[in-house]
Write a structure and sequence with these properties.
Strand content: 15-25%
Number of strands: 8
Distance between the termini: 109 Å
Largest sheet: 5 strands, antiparallel
Order of helices and strands: HHHHHEHHHHEEEEHEEE
Number of helices: 10
Shape: elongated
Radius of gyration: 46 Å
Structural class: alpha+beta
Strand order of the largest sheet: 4-5-1-7-8
Protein backbone atom coordinates (compact mmCIF):
# COMPACT_ATOMS: atom_id res chain seq x y z
CA UNK A 1 0.00 0.00 0.00
CA UNK A 2 1.48 3.39 -1.06
CA UNK A 3 2.11 6.31 1.35
CA UNK A 4 -0.45 8.47 -0.58
CA UNK A 5 -3.21 5.93 -0.05
CA UNK A 6 -2.37 5.63 3.64
CA UNK A 7 -2.63 9.42 4.07
CA UNK A 8 -6.07 9.43 2.41
CA UNK A 9 -7.34 6.67 4.69
CA UNK A 10 -5.90 8.49 7.70
CA UNK A 11 -8.03 11.60 6.92
CA UNK A 12 -11.21 9.46 7.09
CA UNK A 13 -10.42 6.88 9.82
CA UNK A 14 -8.31 7.39 12.92
CA UNK A 15 -5.84 4.52 12.46
CA UNK A 16 -2.22 3.76 13.16
CA UNK A 17 -0.50 4.29 9.85
CA UNK A 18 2.47 2.15 10.89
CA UNK A 19 0.24 -0.94 10.99
CA UNK A 20 -0.69 -0.49 7.33
CA UNK A 21 2.88 -0.34 6.15
CA UNK A 22 4.23 -3.68 4.75
CA UNK A 23 6.65 -5.72 6.86
CA UNK A 24 10.23 -5.79 5.76
CA UNK A 25 11.03 -8.89 3.68
CA UNK A 26 13.72 -10.00 6.15
CA UNK A 27 11.26 -9.95 9.03
CA UNK A 28 8.81 -12.13 7.00
CA UNK A 29 11.51 -14.74 6.33
CA UNK A 30 12.43 -14.89 10.01
CA UNK A 31 8.80 -15.44 10.95
CA UNK A 32 8.55 -18.37 8.54
CA UNK A 33 11.72 -19.93 9.92
CA UNK A 34 10.56 -19.41 13.50
CA UNK A 35 7.17 -20.99 12.78
CA UNK A 36 8.87 -23.98 11.13
CA UNK A 37 11.21 -24.36 14.11
CA UNK A 38 8.36 -24.29 16.63
CA UNK A 39 6.32 -26.89 14.77
CA UNK A 40 9.18 -29.20 13.75
CA UNK A 41 8.97 -32.74 15.18
CA UNK A 42 12.74 -33.21 15.29
CA UNK A 43 14.20 -32.91 18.77
CA UNK A 44 16.31 -29.83 19.35
CA UNK A 45 14.96 -27.59 16.58
CA UNK A 46 11.90 -26.34 18.58
CA UNK A 47 14.22 -25.55 21.48
CA UNK A 48 16.38 -23.42 19.20
CA UNK A 49 13.31 -21.51 17.98
CA UNK A 50 12.00 -20.94 21.55
CA UNK A 51 15.32 -19.74 22.94
CA UNK A 52 15.18 -16.18 24.32
CA UNK A 53 18.92 -15.65 24.54
CA UNK A 54 21.77 -16.13 22.16
CA UNK A 55 23.50 -18.51 24.62
CA UNK A 56 20.54 -20.90 24.73
CA UNK A 57 20.28 -20.79 20.97
CA UNK A 58 23.99 -21.62 20.58
CA UNK A 59 23.72 -24.49 23.14
CA UNK A 60 20.75 -26.10 21.41
CA UNK A 61 22.30 -25.59 17.97
CA UNK A 62 25.54 -27.33 18.99
CA UNK A 63 23.63 -30.14 20.71
CA UNK A 64 21.45 -30.69 17.66
CA UNK A 65 24.46 -30.82 15.32
CA UNK A 66 26.43 -33.18 17.61
CA UNK A 67 23.64 -35.71 18.15
CA UNK A 68 22.64 -35.61 14.49
CA UNK A 69 26.22 -36.52 13.64
CA UNK A 70 26.16 -39.38 16.15
CA UNK A 71 22.92 -40.71 14.66
CA UNK A 72 24.34 -40.55 11.14
CA UNK A 73 27.46 -42.40 12.31
CA UNK A 74 25.48 -45.36 13.68
CA UNK A 75 23.21 -45.44 10.62
CA UNK A 76 26.20 -45.58 8.28
CA UNK A 77 27.85 -48.28 10.42
CA UNK A 78 24.68 -50.40 10.31
CA UNK A 79 24.45 -50.06 6.50
CA UNK A 80 28.12 -51.00 6.05
CA UNK A 81 27.73 -53.99 8.39
CA UNK A 82 24.68 -55.19 6.42
CA UNK A 83 26.47 -55.10 3.07
CA UNK A 84 29.52 -56.82 4.58
CA UNK A 85 27.28 -59.92 5.12
CA UNK A 86 29.01 -61.08 8.31
CA UNK A 87 28.62 -64.73 9.34
CA UNK A 88 29.17 -66.49 12.61
CA UNK A 89 30.12 -70.15 12.76
CA UNK A 90 29.87 -72.12 15.96
CA UNK A 91 31.79 -75.41 16.17
CA UNK A 92 31.58 -77.82 19.05
CA UNK A 93 33.24 -81.19 19.57
CA UNK A 94 31.98 -84.08 21.62
CA UNK A 95 33.96 -87.18 22.43
CA UNK A 96 31.75 -90.26 22.33
CA UNK A 97 33.17 -93.73 22.65
CA UNK A 98 32.16 -96.29 21.75
CA UNK A 99 30.19 -95.29 18.68
CA UNK A 100 27.95 -97.40 16.49
CA UNK A 101 29.70 -98.56 13.35
CA UNK A 102 28.24 -96.74 10.30
CA UNK A 103 25.81 -98.56 8.05
CA UNK A 104 27.53 -99.86 4.92
CA UNK A 105 25.49 -100.54 1.77
CA UNK A 106 26.70 -102.59 -1.18
CA UNK A 107 25.02 -102.87 -4.59
CA UNK A 108 26.08 -104.70 -7.70
CA UNK A 109 26.74 -102.12 -10.42
CA UNK A 110 24.48 -104.08 -12.77
CA UNK A 111 21.10 -104.93 -11.24
CA UNK A 112 20.11 -107.64 -13.76
CA UNK A 113 21.63 -111.10 -13.90
CA UNK A 114 21.77 -112.32 -17.49
CA UNK A 115 21.25 -116.06 -16.87
CA UNK A 116 17.97 -115.52 -14.96
CA UNK A 117 16.82 -112.54 -17.01
CA UNK A 118 17.27 -113.63 -20.61
CA UNK A 119 14.65 -116.40 -20.74
CA UNK A 120 11.60 -114.39 -19.51
CA UNK A 121 12.84 -111.40 -21.49
CA UNK A 122 12.89 -113.29 -24.80
CA UNK A 123 9.44 -114.68 -24.08
CA UNK A 124 8.22 -111.08 -23.71
CA UNK A 125 9.90 -109.69 -26.84
CA UNK A 126 8.94 -112.70 -28.98
CA UNK A 127 5.31 -112.44 -27.87
CA UNK A 128 5.23 -108.82 -29.06
CA UNK A 129 7.06 -109.70 -32.31
CA UNK A 130 9.93 -107.46 -31.26
CA UNK A 131 12.34 -110.37 -31.67
CA UNK A 132 12.18 -113.88 -33.07
CA UNK A 133 14.86 -115.90 -31.38
CA UNK A 134 15.42 -118.44 -28.64
CA UNK A 135 19.17 -117.94 -28.51
CA UNK A 136 20.01 -117.13 -24.87
CA UNK A 137 23.75 -116.89 -25.48
CA UNK A 138 23.79 -113.68 -27.52
CA UNK A 139 22.32 -110.25 -26.96
CA UNK A 140 22.17 -107.28 -29.34
CA UNK A 141 21.91 -103.54 -28.84
CA UNK A 142 18.44 -103.63 -30.37
CA UNK A 143 17.31 -106.18 -27.81
CA UNK A 144 18.69 -104.03 -25.01
CA UNK A 145 16.46 -101.13 -26.06
CA UNK A 146 13.36 -102.98 -24.80
CA UNK A 147 14.62 -103.73 -21.28
CA UNK A 148 12.84 -100.81 -19.61
CA UNK A 149 9.57 -101.75 -21.32
CA UNK A 150 9.93 -105.31 -20.05
CA UNK A 151 10.59 -104.22 -16.45
CA UNK A 152 7.64 -101.81 -16.57
CA UNK A 153 5.43 -104.59 -17.89
CA UNK A 154 6.41 -106.87 -15.01
CA UNK A 155 5.80 -104.20 -12.40
CA UNK A 156 2.41 -103.28 -13.86
CA UNK A 157 1.41 -106.92 -13.43
CA UNK A 158 2.57 -106.82 -9.77
CA UNK A 159 5.21 -109.43 -10.55
CA UNK A 160 8.41 -109.51 -8.55
CA UNK A 161 11.75 -108.72 -10.18
CA UNK A 162 13.83 -110.28 -7.41
CA UNK A 163 14.63 -113.34 -9.50
CA UNK A 164 16.54 -111.13 -11.94
CA UNK A 165 18.74 -109.53 -9.27
CA UNK A 166 21.92 -110.75 -7.60
CA UNK A 167 21.28 -112.39 -4.22
CA UNK A 168 23.82 -111.52 -1.55
CA UNK A 169 24.52 -115.19 -0.97
CA UNK A 170 25.94 -115.40 -4.49
CA UNK A 171 28.15 -112.32 -4.07
CA UNK A 172 29.44 -112.50 -0.48
CA UNK A 173 32.62 -114.55 -0.28
CA UNK A 174 34.02 -113.23 3.00
CA UNK A 175 32.69 -110.97 5.76
CA UNK A 176 34.81 -110.11 8.82
CA UNK A 177 34.12 -107.34 11.33
CA UNK A 178 36.81 -106.57 13.91
CA UNK A 179 38.24 -110.04 13.41
CA UNK A 180 34.91 -111.86 13.89
CA UNK A 181 33.09 -113.55 11.04
CA UNK A 182 29.80 -112.09 9.80
CA UNK A 183 27.30 -113.50 7.32
CA UNK A 184 24.35 -112.75 5.05
CA UNK A 185 22.14 -112.65 8.16
CA UNK A 186 23.90 -109.45 9.26
CA UNK A 187 22.62 -107.60 6.17
CA UNK A 188 19.18 -106.33 5.25
CA UNK A 189 18.10 -105.88 1.65
CA UNK A 190 16.18 -103.10 -0.04
CA UNK A 191 15.24 -102.31 -3.63
CA UNK A 192 17.11 -99.50 -5.40
CA UNK A 193 15.68 -98.02 -8.64
CA UNK A 194 19.23 -97.82 -10.02
CA UNK A 195 21.03 -100.93 -8.74
CA UNK A 196 18.21 -103.35 -8.06
CA UNK A 197 18.71 -105.23 -4.78
CA UNK A 198 21.13 -103.59 -2.36
CA UNK A 199 22.32 -104.89 1.01
CA UNK A 200 23.14 -102.90 4.16
CA UNK A 201 25.41 -104.04 6.99
CA UNK A 202 24.75 -102.73 10.51
CA UNK A 203 21.47 -101.09 9.55
CA UNK A 204 19.38 -99.47 12.26
CA UNK A 205 16.35 -101.20 10.75
CA UNK A 206 18.05 -104.56 11.32
CA UNK A 207 18.62 -103.59 14.95
CA UNK A 208 14.94 -102.71 15.37
CA UNK A 209 14.06 -106.18 14.07
CA UNK A 210 16.06 -107.77 16.92
CA UNK A 211 19.27 -107.69 14.90
CA UNK A 212 22.62 -106.89 16.49
CA UNK A 213 23.94 -103.33 16.21
CA UNK A 214 27.72 -103.37 16.02
CA UNK A 215 29.99 -100.83 17.74
CA UNK A 216 33.53 -99.72 16.94
CA UNK A 217 35.14 -101.21 20.04
CA UNK A 218 33.89 -104.76 19.60
CA UNK A 219 36.57 -107.43 20.16
CA UNK A 220 38.95 -104.68 21.33
CA UNK A 221 39.34 -103.28 17.83
CA UNK A 222 38.58 -99.87 16.29
CA UNK A 223 35.88 -100.78 13.75
CA UNK A 224 37.07 -102.54 10.59
CA UNK A 225 34.82 -104.31 8.10
CA UNK A 226 36.40 -106.63 5.54
CA UNK A 227 34.32 -107.81 2.58
CA UNK A 228 35.25 -110.04 -0.33
CA UNK A 229 32.61 -109.89 -3.05
CA UNK A 230 32.10 -111.67 -6.35
CA UNK A 231 30.48 -109.30 -8.88
CA UNK A 232 29.52 -111.89 -11.53
CA UNK A 233 30.73 -109.57 -14.27
CA UNK A 234 30.31 -112.35 -16.85
CA UNK A 235 26.57 -112.27 -16.11
CA UNK A 236 26.12 -108.55 -16.85
CA UNK A 237 23.48 -107.78 -19.49
CA UNK A 238 25.34 -106.40 -22.53
CA UNK A 239 24.75 -102.79 -23.65
CA UNK A 240 23.06 -101.95 -20.33
CA UNK A 241 25.92 -100.58 -18.21
CA UNK A 242 29.33 -99.18 -19.04
CA UNK A 243 31.10 -100.39 -15.90
CA UNK A 244 31.62 -103.40 -13.68
CA UNK A 245 31.97 -103.56 -9.93
CA UNK A 246 30.29 -102.91 -6.59
CA UNK A 247 28.70 -99.63 -5.53
CA UNK A 248 29.60 -98.90 -1.89
CA UNK A 249 27.58 -96.33 0.07
CA UNK A 250 28.33 -95.21 3.63
CA UNK A 251 27.78 -92.00 5.61
CA UNK A 252 26.36 -90.08 2.60
CA UNK A 253 29.41 -91.06 0.55
CA UNK A 254 29.29 -93.41 -2.39
CA UNK A 255 31.84 -94.89 -4.74
CA UNK A 256 32.13 -97.71 -7.24
CA UNK A 257 34.76 -100.34 -6.62
CA UNK A 258 35.96 -102.13 -9.75
Amino acid sequence: MSDCTIEQIKTVFPINTEALKPRPILQGHRAILREFGLTASAHGIPSIARSKSIYNRIFWSISCVVFTGIALYFIIEAILAYFAYPTQTSISFSNEWPQAFPAVTICNYSPLRFDTFIGPYLNYTNALNLTNTTDTSTFSAEQASYINDFLTYKLNRNESLNEFYYPLSSMLIKCVYNGANCSVADFIQFLSPVYGLCYTYNSQANHINNGELHYNNEDEDSGKLELDLYVHSHQYVPYSYDGKGISLITSNYSTVLF
